[in-house]
Design goal:
By secondary structure, the chain is an alpha+beta fold. It has one helix and eight strands. It has one domain. Helices cover about 30% and strands about 40% of the residues. The longest helix is centred in the N-terminal third of the chain and has 54 residues. It is elongated. The relative contact order is 0.16.
Length: about 180
């Protein structure tokens, strides 16, 4: 009686072919899921960043005395503009602190870098800047009194962000709690 231990070449080739088919199917499945995960992550990241930026802008505006000045992309002041929608390069808010005095918040939007930055200037002249958001496609602001920014008691803010295929638009209406004019 002879004992044949081992595999024939054909059996090995068939085993490798079956393993290759299974690994190809698993690889395709994993690749498809990885693409879906990355797309979802882009959307979640941009939603988070848009909401965080909008929360910061509304918190600053809400506690301010109104818009101190607003500039368009050409650098022109539009505080008394009858335009109902401005794509600003800079918005300046003032807040009164009972201890510190008047604190200035300057929100800058640079469309070439797509970055939104806030600069806080204290009464002693010291200032600090920090980025609020990147990947900004557009920032728009409109007065709710349909007249101008100088005498409006609230504004609407529109923020559009893009990252790859992910898009996010958010808007908020903010009433100035400490409005003075």
């Amino acid at each position: 009686m002879t004992s044949d231990k081992g595999f024939t070449t054909i059996e090995l080739i068939l085993a490798i072919a079956i393993a290759g088919i299974i690994m190809g199917a698993v690889g395709t499945f994993l690749n498809f899921n990885l693409k879906g995960f990355n797309a979802t992550k882009e959307i979640i990241d941009i939603q988070y960043e848009a909401q965080l930026a909008m929360n910061q802008i509304t918190a600053i505006a809400k506690e301010s005395k109104g818009i101190e000045d607003i500039f368009d992309q050409a650098g022109n002041s539009r505080i008394d503009s009858p335009d109902l929608l401005i794509n600003p390069s800079k918005i300046i808010f003032h807040q009164e602190d009972p201890i510190e005095g008047t604190i200035e918040f300057e929100i800058d939007f640079d469309p070439s870098t797509r970055v939104l930055t806030c600069t806080i200037t204290l009464p002693d002249g010291s200032s600090q800047s920090y980025p609020m958001a990147s990947r900004i496609e557009a920032l728009s602001v409109a007065p709710t009194n349909d007249v101008d920014f100088e005498y409006t008691k609230s504004i609407q803010i529109f923020l559009d962000m893009t990252d790859g295929d992910a898009n996010m638009s958010t808007q908020s209406q903010v009433k100035f709690r400490n409005f003075e004019k």
